[in-house]
Q: What sequence folds into this?
């Protein structure tokens, strides 16, 4: 739940580093990230790994797979905190053992909950 453009309001340089690192380490295609941003279904293992990677790198998911809302909100400007908090509170109930699957469901739920404010890096 983050962004390569300025839609998150976060540090664009840091976001690009996270994006590039996770894209490379998971073998995810840029096209899959772009399609997901546009609301299209992207359901492959590489993309699920990417979701987990960006969430962990950004501090929104702990190594145990819990959503860490306070840590994640610290990285956002005040104008983004309310919508991001609502999305994560609404979508942090998943308990899948597979953390890739859990991260994917959190991202998908966030996008469906508030498509206008959803962002991913």
A:
């Amino acid at each position: 739940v983050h962004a390569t453009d300025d839609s998150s309001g976060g540090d664009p340089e840091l976001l690009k580093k996270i994006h590039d690192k996770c894209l490379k380490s998971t073998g995810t295609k840029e096209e899959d990230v772009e399609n997901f941003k546009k609301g299209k279904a992207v359901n492959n293992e590489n993309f699920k790994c990417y979701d987990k990677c960006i969430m962990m790198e950004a501090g929104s998911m702990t190594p145990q797979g819990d959503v860490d809302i306070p840590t994640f909100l610290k990285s956002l400007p005040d104008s983004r905190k309310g919508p991001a908090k609502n999305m994560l509170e609404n979508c942090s109930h998943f308990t899948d053992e597979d953390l890739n699957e859990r991260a994917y469901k959190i991202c998908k739920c966030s996008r469906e909950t508030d498509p206008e404010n959803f962002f991913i890096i």
Notes: Residues 33 and 47 are 8 Å apart (CA to CA). The chain has one domain: 6-113. The two ends are 7 Å apart (CA to CA). Residues 12-26 form the longest helix (15 residues).
